[in-house]
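Model the whole thing, not chain by chain.
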Amino acid sequence: MVEPVEFFLNGKSVKLPVDGERRLLWVLRTDLGLTGTKYGCGEGVCGACTVLVDGKAVRSCQMPVSEARGKKILTIEGLAENGKLHPLQKAFLERGAFQCGYCTPGMIVNAYGLLLDNPEPTEKEIIEAMDDNLCRCGAYVRIIQAIGIAAAELRKRGGRT
Amino acid sequence: MKEQNDRKDVARLSRREFLKAAGGGLIVLFSWQGLPAQEGRPRAAAELPDNFNAFLSIQADGRVRLFTGKIEMGQGIVTSLAQMLAEEIEVELEAIDMVMGDTDLCPFDNGTFGSLSTRFFGVPMRQAAAEARGVLLEMAAKRLGVPAEQLMVKSGTVMDKTDTGHRITYADLVRGRRIENRLFPKPPVKSAAALSIIGKSPLRKDGIEKVTGRALYAGDIRLPGMLYAKILRPPAHGARLKHVDVSPVRSVPEARVVREGDFVAVLHAQPDAAEKALSMIKAQWEVPRDHRNPATIYDHLLKKAPEGDIVSQGGDMGAGEMETNTIHEGTYYDHYMAHAPVEPHTATVRIAGGRVTIWPSSQRPFGAKEEVAQALSLSADKVHVVSPFVGGGFGGKSPNRQVVEAARLAKLTGKPVHVQWSRAEEFFYDTFRPAAIVKIRSGTDGRGKVVFWDYDAYFCGPRGAEQFYTIPYHREVSHGPYNGIPGAHPFGTGPWRAPGANINAFARESHLDTMAAKAGVDPLQFRLKHLDDPRLMRVLKAAAEKFGWKGLPSPSGRGQGIACAVDAGARVATIAEVEVDKESGKVRVKRLVHAQDMGLVINPEGARMQMEGGLTMGLGYALTEEVRFDGGRILDINFDTYEIPRFSWLPRIDTILIDNPDVGAQGGGEPPIICVGASIGNAIFDGTGARLFDLPMSPERVKKALAKP
């Protein structure tokens, strides 16, 4: 049933008429034109479609858009502020923590969820939190390093993650 | 939402339009239709245009465009090719704009595979840049009234060495025109000692787009009026459509059904609505009986195997067998494996004004152009392929089936059409790494030296079968290519990162290891004793030194294994250390040390990324990846059962990059993966005394091998 659904997307209020059963991934990519969030498996087992919902990493290919009602959604497009890369993005860039780049938005957003929850993760905690995000190119070594670098940078700033 | 709207506008434009919009207006210089060499060119990979204008252009603002038919799928040539051009033409790396895989703008290219980009495109492109620089110097000499020898170039500005204020920029020399002058003979490229951009590791040119989500892939193209298509798929390869009822789709508003024989599709302005509508179609299929399954496939393949072609040979095999003291026999098996890039096959196609524009996820944009022209009965010059970033390929995006599907649907509906395969479709239509068999009969003399080597590889192709050990009597035969022959495989097979080389390396290096063990010699020393290739010996020693190799005969109980190979002009050696859980059969790789000599290294960090990535990806084919099937039915259709490497699998990885400029730039993306299986197999043997003969070395197979007396 098409009904108005209202939520916050990357800091801005969004209201759109939509069938509430549709998955958030396709609403983001099609109706809202935010193509940074990717389709990878459609069953929530690869992590390419990861977004944050009220600060928690969620697989948008599994989430009915009606469940987004009133919540804060963050996608990869909302991470940089005023054109300035977030420390995670900067660390991924500088460490070369990607190859084809297709899983990268999901990796960065999932890592952001981890750092909101645990600003000082050990390597083991990073691996645990990231383990369900798949990268076929095999950039894992550098992704772990990049998350560690970003976490340290954020702590140094002492500000919010 | 301003930014999003801008993005949509950009996505709406073709690459050519985009370049025009982005400034310069220089594209008019590249009217390819006027060049007779472009169409109908023989499809030889090595044949590239002789004219440097095909590779590069100096724009009115001084920026330099690099044109390559190669695509960027993660391997990093978007940066390394730019480095090669910037180095040779002497502009800043930041001044290079890459135009990749655009069939209207770039010289013909057979495809991005085989670790060929640097060796067979980069090298001639660099030569073209050296000539362009020489011509620019001549033009500057005329304009400045000084002999060319008295000039130097810095960041695209030519200046008089004796008076650096006396100068002119490339932009002012060229003024956006095509450069007609040529140089004969062509000037040499810079010597290794003079390089300043090659050999450095600048940030990747695709980095900012990729970390911000702005990078566009085929699935991110949005066109006005575009429809998303979902196509009815058979339950098994070879199945025929007996009956189909599409009437339930009528209940989905605005859904369109298109049918042409067995080709049935639903289209909708929303991809999820198209998918939902497709699921409502009732179809009956006739599935042919097919007795091929994982238990029967090898007998079937051996029966089907063609006579074969000699890959390499030396000495009289009969005489060799006479000199043999002990015969060692082994048969090694590779199972079907998926490419499984995270981006599935995708294509967006628009037909307007008699011209077809395609945005595909493809390793073969020029192939896509030909295939679509044929499918739509158009001449190829009416088809334009624009290559967005490709989300991983590994050989699997060489076939362009999804491109032809989208093109057919665009023609049938009169609308721009977007096809993105679901993960299940991706597994179903993947052209798998083939099931393959390698049989080895070898012999040692009384002193434990290998004197005899009789080698038959079935259905993996010859790559990696060629002998590089110094064995006096040897014969290597390849029976059947990796893409199969009619009737061999129940589904498509094709090239998978270093096609053939993985199983050939696994068989050869496992077998050699067995012989070293029988001789009671350290596997490293055993290899060195049978080698005369200094580059290969050097990588073996470098890996051993980094690892802290102790040099005990296997099985030593420590779980350490070594393997080496020659591939794509590179030399590689990998050492693995494993821990085997004897209860479950589960293998944990604790450490990988990899040494690689890939000749002249263009971008060391980029090379290391490829090495780390290849080693990590290799853990999958070594330990878990195997597509299960029943005849033409594919039983693994997602990542829940088809296990690819994860963060938690990571061993400690050390990479050793041996810069060897004397041999020129060699392949780098495929060589690092090919010894992963062999080094792990040898490490399992070293740790437990159990020899594994099948890839992947799954817990069940390890347990079975451990149970053998």
